[in-house]
Amino acid sequence: MILKNRIEEREVHKKLVLKILMIVPVIFLIFAILQRDGEVVNGLTAILKSPTILVTDFMELGGLSSAFLNAAIMGLLNIFLLKKFDMRINGLLIAALMTVIGFSFFGKNLVNIIPLYFGGYLYAKNQGIHPRDVIAVIMFSTGLSPIISELMFAGIMSPNVSIIVGIMTGTLIGFVIAPLSAHMLKFHEGYNLYNIGFTAGIIGTVFTSIMRTLSKEIQPVSILYTSSDVNIKMLLALIFTIFIVIGFKINKNAFKDYKQLFNYNGRSVTDFTFLVGYGVTFVNMGVMGLLSVGLVSALNGIINGPVMAAIFTIVGFAAFGKHPKNSIPVMAGVLAGALLLGFDTSSTGIVISILFSTTIAPIAGTHGPVWGFVAGLLHLSLVTNIGVIHGGINLYNNGFSGGLVAGVLIPIIDAFKRGE
Amino acid sequence: MRHEIKKVSKIVDELMTLLLREDTDEVDFKVKKEQDHYKIVVTDYNTKFTQAEAKEFEEYFNVQRQHEYEEYFWQLVGESDCDVELTMIGAMVDEAIVELRGNDLYMEIIRKI
What we know:
heterodimer, A: 2 domains, B: alpha+beta
């Protein structure tokens, strides 16, 4: 059993952590302004009015300036909420914030998240608890935001009815997501880090089945940014390098202490901000970010909306369970499977499957790299086939797959183990 | 529904699993519901834990209450018999005393309602 590590670092106040995290949306905002493509208003309108079904890449749909502006707005709004609630910024909240920012290139916008937040607020009021108690779950629940946009803007009903039905459905999901997600944890025992992805997959499956029963088929789309990504890579490298530098500023022994991170298996709840401090956590976030960008480049992949979502989700969860030691075996399993089956490893679908597969990194962390590799192979099979079940309305398709992989694999691993 | 009683049961479950697996073959639990809090008293007999480890437990349990963890992860507490959720116990309780008393490890944990 590993207890908390004795790591010495500068005292870090929660306001400072928020300021550090604010670097991401502020840099995105500057990048959006520098684009000067003259498409901001039209692009942002297109993003806000899109059904946002998988795969809708905002970088292609609205242009770079609008997509980065959308991500900046979403990031700043959520940072404002965390500041207003005066919360200790722990690993879970960092993961939630980075996930929201990442998916703001690929499905989430102001229109389709607000009903979910409102539903979460109503749930808190109904239970007599403070809204801050459910803010993390609600931030993650925005993975189901395409349900709202689909109902509002896909022309399923008349425009006025669509808006009302979309808002009501989003509010209802926000109201029930906290108890549902807590319940779903038991299926995979915390080995799937994107638990809301698993929950959202189940909700999405129910929703899509109802729509199909009513003869309303949800049509998948494929809108992907495929142009030059050199500037975006440089931008990401800058952000992740800043994280590493800040980590060293907080803890000047962060490099030496970094190895201690590998002692943790990453299974929920593994909050690195508490266990190894903010210095090592920010270094890990930077390292995982740079590794992700390096991997995408090595595979000749393009950094577009879905890949941005994957990279920032990894960076966020680098504060809450992921590190190179538990992530690489799983990613290797997905990559090996893709190569064996002859998939195009530079395609966005495979690139994000590799990156998002780290949702089950705790399997490698707990049961070793071989089981991690096997989990990666299994993940590839599932993730390339389960999108059809929920009709593309769950942005966290890999979280759904990861939950199924962990839920099936953990009892199997148990069957091979001996002991009390 | 807030599931207060179940959450207290889960904390007891997690601690019992941890202590029986890592330390002892005899442990007592006493749970008392007061007007505004639950008190969990644990006596782990003939402990192998050191004074330093007792202090580490105390540090874990006295971290600020984190309701966002509780709402999301409480059902995970006490579920695994090969891993520990000490972070979760810390997130779900308000105060704790953990100390060695003779050969025993003594814990007194307060969870405010």
